Each structure stands twice: as C-alpha cells, then as structure tokens.
C-alpha cells in the first residue's frame, strides 16, 4: 500500500475535500474519482464523500494503490535497480533490450522483468513507464508504481507525442525531468561545449529516420566534451527538447556521428561496438512524494568503456 497523508491547514477550512485534493495535493480528477469510488480517501480514519467540508487539522489519507492487472508475462531477470521507493523504480537498462512488449518482441523486454520483480516482492503494481529508450540505447528508465506517481512525473516530463510520433516541447510552466546522455562520437568537435539548435523533421509518415530540416520542429541539444580521444570525443548531451533520435540526428548533422550508429553513422564500426554508443547516464527530477530533487546516475556500460580503450589503442 502507498499512502498520501496530509493535515488540513486553516486556509482550507470550510472548503470541500475535492478542492483540497486537487489544489493542495495536485491529484487529477480521474485519480480522485477512482479513489473515491473505491473508498480509498479518508478523513480522520473514516471514508468520506467528495463534498465533505473540511475543518482545520483534519487528517487526510489517500491510498494511491489499487488492484490492477496488466497483460505482460513475468520473466525472471537480473534488473539493475538504481533507486526505489514507494512510488517509483529506476533501473539501468542494458543495451539490446526492448523496453515494452511489441508484436515482434513479446518477451525478454524490460517490462517483463519489472512485472516479475513486482510479483516477487509482493508489490501490487503494473508497469507505468515515465521514460523510454531505444532498444540499442542503454541507461536509466523511470517506472511509476502507482497512478499518482505517474501523473506527477508525466507533468514534469511534459513531453507528449504529437501526431507524427515525435515528442512535443515541454510546456513553459512545467518542471522538466533533466535527461543527460553520454555519447562517443567520431572526430573532435570544434568547440568543447555548446548548443545545437536545429529543427528535426520526419520526411515521411512511415520513415524511421529523421533529418535536420527547416520544416521540422525546433530541437535543442546542449553538449559538453568530457574527454578528447584520437579523432573521437566522449560527449555529454543534455536534452532541452525530446525529439525522436534527437542526439543521434544532431551529432550526425554536425559531422560527428555516434560510433556504432548504423542509421545515422558510418559503416564499418562493427569492430568497435555492436550498437550506437549512447547511454542515458543521469536523471534529475522531483520526487513525486517529497518534491525534493533526485539526482540519479548510472556508469558507462562495459561495451562503451571497451570502445574508449580500443580508440586509445589505435
């Protein structure tokens, strides 16, 4: 069970509990409605209706857990758990792993492993993905354990997909989840740090590949060179917008494709690495419950460390 507990301040005396839940706790109408129907909202240990009139110092308790099922088969996996609390699970995804089941990948996905973990630890949760990564991109992914956490983190993420499947820019009033990646690229960038502000376009509805094109949406990537190598750089990239393949498209357009990127990069990288050398290594966001900043990191995977060593030996 996961609970939100609050004591009603004097300024809410005389107001309905529904207003308090929306304004003070930031709960959605949908969550409030469902919790009220299930009897999961209590005042002073008693189930109340949503027209209940509050008194100062009332004790409010909302059970944000509920019985849910999901059509994902549990599979035993060695999950790399970076952080966990009552509301979220953050895992470090290995490369070559699909995040969620699809028609072509119905098993062996991260979601299969997470469901199994929830079952083994007696947590009545379904997989609510807050962030996703391409199959061949490794790194941090957030899973919300309940509707409340998913709602709160989705507001921070504020990157809903548009009709073309790309991710919209964050709303101006949102607090964004800051996502940082490490990429290993061909060649040495002219500047050790800077911003790539170039629009990204999907040339056709059925196209997987994206391109820099003035017809596209504004896309912003901040970068910083962490290490200079021989004709290669280790680069930190921070997303300000979240277009599909944004980092890969931007770096390739700049003449510095990511090692192993067969879609936007060079041929012949197989001897170096078997996938694009891109790792989501850091997330900074507000805890749904405490509203305090969580800063989580995952070190470079083995294949990217090996790549760096190979480049140094050339």
From TrEMBL:
PROSITE patterns: S4. GO terms for molecular function: catalytic activity, acting on RNA; pseudouridine synthase activity; RNA binding. Pfam families: PseudoU_synth_2. Gene3D superfamilies: Pseudouridine synthase. Residues 87-253 form the Pseudouridine synthase RsuA/RluA-like domain. Its EC number is 5.4.99.-. One of its GO terms (biological process) is enzyme-directed rRNA pseudouridine synthesis. The active site is at 134. It catalyses: a uridine in RNA = a pseudouridine in RNA. Keywords: Isomerase, RNA-binding. Belongs to the pseudouridine synthase RluA family. Responsible for synthesis of pseudouridine from uracil. This is Pseudouridine synthase. It comes from Clostridium manihotivorum.
């Amino acid at each position: 069970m996961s609970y939100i507990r609050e004591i009603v301040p004097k300024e809410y005396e005389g107001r309905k509990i529904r207003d308090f839940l929306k304004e003070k706790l930031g709960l959605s109408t949908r969550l409030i409605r469902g919790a009220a129907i299930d009897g999961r909202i209590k005042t002073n240990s008693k189930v109340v209706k949503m027209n209940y009139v509050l008194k100062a110092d009332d004790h409010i308790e909302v059970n944000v857990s509920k019985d849910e099922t999901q059509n994902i088969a549990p599979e035993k996996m060695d999950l790399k758990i970076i952080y966990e609390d009552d509301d979220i699970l953050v895992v470090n995804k290995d490369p070559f792993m699909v995040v969620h089941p699809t028609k072509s990948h119905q098993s062996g996905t991260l979601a299969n492993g997470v469901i199994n973990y929830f079952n083994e630890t007696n947590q009545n949760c379904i997989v609510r993905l807050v962030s996703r990564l391409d199959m061949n991109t490794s790194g941090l992914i957030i899973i919300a354990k309940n509707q409340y956490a998913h709602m709160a983190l989705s507001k921070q993420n504020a990157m809903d997909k548009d009709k073309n499947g790309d991710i919209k820019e964050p709303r101006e009033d949102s607090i964004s989840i800051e996502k940082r990646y490490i990429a290993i690229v061909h060649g040495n960038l002219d500047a050790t740090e800077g911003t790539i502000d170039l629009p990204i376009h999907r040339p056709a509805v059925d196209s997987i590949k994206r391109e820099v094109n003035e017809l596209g949406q504004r896309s912003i990537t901040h970068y910083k060179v962490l290490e200079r190598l021989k004709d290669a750089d280790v680069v930190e990239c921070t997303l300000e917008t979240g277009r599909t393949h944004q980092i890969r498209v931007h770096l390739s357009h700049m003449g510095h494709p990511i090692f192993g990127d067969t879609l936007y990069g060079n041929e012949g990288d197989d001897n170096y690495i078997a996938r694009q050398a891109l790792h989501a290594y850091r997330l900074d966001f507000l805890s749904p419950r405490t509203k305090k900043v969580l800063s989580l990191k995952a070190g470079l995977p083995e294949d990217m460390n090996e790549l760096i060593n190979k480049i140094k030996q050339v």
